[in-house]
Amino acid sequence: MNDTILVTGGAGFIGANFVLEWVRKQGAVVVNLDKLSYAGNRESLAALEGDGRHIFVCGDIADSVLVGKLLEEHRPRAVVNFAAESHVDRSIHGPRDFIQTNIVGTFELLEVAKSYWGGLQEDEKKKFRFLHVSTDEVYGSLKPGDPAFTEGKRYEPNSPYSASKAASDHLVRAYHHTYGMPVLTTNCSNNYGPLQFPEKLIPLMIVNALAGKALPVYGDGMQIRDWLYVGDHCSAIARVLEAGEVGEVYNIGGWNEKPNIEIVHTICDILDEVQPKSDGSSYRSQIQTVTDRPGHDRRYAIDARKIERELGWRPAETFETGIRKTVQWYLSNQEWVRNVQTGTYRDWVEKNYSGREA
Ligand code: NAD
Ligand code: DAU
Description:
Elements: E1 5-8, H1 13-26, E2 30-34, E3 54-58, H2 64-74, E4 78-81, H3 88-93, H4 96-118, H5 122-127, E5 129-135, H6 160-179, E6 183-188, E7 190-192, H7 201-210, E8 215-218, E9 224-229, H8 230-243, E10 249-252, E11 257-259, H9 260-274, E12 287-290, H10 305-311, H11 319-332, H12 334-340, H13 343-353
Parallel strand pairs: 1-2, 1-4, 2-3, 4-5, 5-6, 6-10, 7-9, 8-12
Antiparallel strand pairs: 9-11
The structure holds nicotinamide-adenine-dinucleotide and 2'deoxy-thymidine-5'-diphospho-alpha-D-glucose (DAU).
């Protein structure tokens, strides 16, 4: 075993940010296994082109032969599992891929990792970690005034996406309790920042605003999410990997509860300031109410006191600093945006939004 880590889903939004930051800060080798679904993008990792510390492998976490070979060949000290189908709206239109990757894929990955871990020498076995990256959505929906989710909150997933993530969390937990595997689980709130695929709220609003398109707000726009800048999520995962107690769960959040409509207004106001429209109108004029997401969770809120108390982690960005950085990143990386807006992306937009105007 050496200092190498195996990251899965490292060509997606959070995974790519994590890999870029890990190589920059730790300088150790990352083996990056990603099947390059619609959400995976090699271009996001362009800064590591030709860098021997990044080994990219195109493949599926459910391919146990491939994963077994990678573990034996690279002898990593940890597996960090980001790979997932991650978009709630897509899980409503077609849950099958979510069951396959999030449940079956995580199961296959656990099986192979267990066998690799079981074959390590005693001191290496103690050091090995399997870190599973999960979401606050497994806890269900809160009413106004309900306390924020703690790690002890009962699981009440409401979408096929959150149900599949909940199942994967349970499998990870079971592999610790039954086989003693040294696992860690993190449950994080909504991320935003560079390299996020423009199907999620914040990047969709930025790219649609700049393209003069409608800004589709579901329902009354008063659903609440807790927002965390992606760099902060990555630093929290690195901290949990370094110092988290085996078998424990850590909630990660930004202490930034905001209704969706406020997020959209903030993005419009920043764009009005930094990229004003030629006709002098505000980007807010592009906001359009559309019919709500079925089963839409009303409110998420994360109680992130455990990770602060036990591991000394707190987010570095406020929403105000993070959202400005994010808008600026999309303004400066319009080629990246154009390249991900493929035919299948346009098909998705048509499928999810056509005929939905309220
Ligand atoms: P993403 O959709 O941007 O990226 C997912 C990546 O996984 C893609 O690169 C994709 O190609 C890859 N992938 C999908 N199926 C695979 C498979 N079977 N084998 C190998 N690779 C596969 O997702 P994201 O937003 O970066 O989320 C990463 C993880 O963090 C997910 O597990 C998600 O549930 C979790 N999470 C996300 C957020 C958020 O706000 N985005 C918040 C909390 C937790
Ligand atoms: O809470 C963590 C989760 O956050 C992650 O586990 C998921 O992977 C991630 O996708 C995200 O899920 P959400 O459903 O909260 O994110 P999304 O960006 O799709 O939507 C955020 C909110 O904005 C939600 O209330 C729905 C709303 N929305 C979304 C889109 C895409 C709109 O009003 N209009 C839209 O067009």
